[in-house]
Amino acid sequence: MSRRLTLEARAGFGDALVAAAQSALDAVRRFLARRRRARLAAVFRSELRALDDHVLHDIGIDRSEIGSVASEMAGLEDPTRLRALVSSNVFP
Questions:
Q1: Total number of domains constituting the chain
Q2: What's the CA angle centered on 87, arms 66 and 53, to 5 degrees?
Q3: 66 pLDDT exceeds 90?
Q4: In a domain? residue 71
Q5: Is 75 contained in some domain?
Q6: Quick one: CA dihedral 58, 85, 74, 43, positive or negative?
Q7: Would 1 be classed as within a structural domain?
Q8: How far apart are CA 22 and CA 47, in angstroms?
Q9: What end-to-end distance do the CA atoms of the chain give, in Å?
């Protein structure tokens, strides 16, 4: 029995190695994108918290909604707030 890999086995190993590297790279990209969105959400939360209640009311946001609005704006969460407003026919 020969210990040498055939050309087909070498190509298969190389393909598997490339696929594993691509998968790892994709995971890193997803992680970094989520981190960017989390930092963006933190900026949105900070900016919205700096507004007074009257301004928040004018733009249709209650102070208790700042966290969810910031997450939706940054793309961390699905934009469910608008769907809930539309389905209830209640607009601020």
A1: 1
A2: 25
A3: yes
A4: yes
A5: yes
A6: positive
A7: no
A8: 37
A9: 77
